[in-house]
Amino acid sequence: MGENYAVPCGTPVGIYLKSDGVLVIGTGTLTGVDGMNVEPAYGVLRSGDYIEAINGKPLSKKEELVEAVNQAGTGRVTLQIRRGQEKMTVSMNPVEDGDGRYKLGAWVRDDTQGIGTLTYLDLNGRFGALGHGISDSDTGGVVEIQEGALYETQIMGIEKGVSGKPGVMSGMIYYGPGTRLGDIEKNLETGIFGTAGESLRSRINSPAIPVGYRQDVQPGPALIRSSVSGAVKDYQIEIQKVDYSSSHRTKSIVFQVTDPELLSLTGGIIQGMSGSPIIQNGKLVGAVTHVFVQDSTRGYGIFVETMLKQ
Fold it and tell me: Annotated catalytic, 259?
């Protein structure tokens, strides 16, 4: 088996995901036009459901759902939904509120965005980032996507991590045709994956290095590559523990940040650094995934081998 090569990136990217259907984040009480409190969606829709169609008409945006419900008035509506692996049809009557609008009494969302770090580019222009999936903040589930994209981002500030409160990288995401860096095809438990555009490929000027497998990762010194300072740099870490079993896929590596420069800049691992490549003995071996909440100098990583299997 010949060696695989990939470019460890460490660059921040803006991430935009469009859900596959309209995601229900919760249901609630409405006050109807008669002043009565009602919960039309109670027991019908659940947090985490994806609404795929209403009265047979496919939906991709929440605006289309709002419009279709208003057109239906108080007539019964039929929704095609996806709940986990199952598809089902449910029906309910919208309720007219005091403003003359018709509602289902469900909170919904159709997109998610955030900032993370690009882990690698392989020699075919495929990328992996984050090292963990993007979950919906309300439902906790990994968002099932229709499509997504990477965009240019600019880091504006850093809030250092302290015990009990992980730090945060705040930034701006620039949305526009000229700032789109790549297409996201998969949002999985192990990261986000897709194809890099020309502008992203031309911008990454680090050389490709061999990919290390799980058996290549050992306790001892290693590096993480990050752009938290505004430029791509490698910082010293110490790998403390390696779990070669595949049970906790996003927590296979435990490490401590030892680099004084990174510690003074961020206090350790902060939100937005997820996906930062881990390099040991000249090989790309993993990516940063989580920080220890009680100790921001320590973090978890995933084997890059697990990401490359996508």
Answer: yes
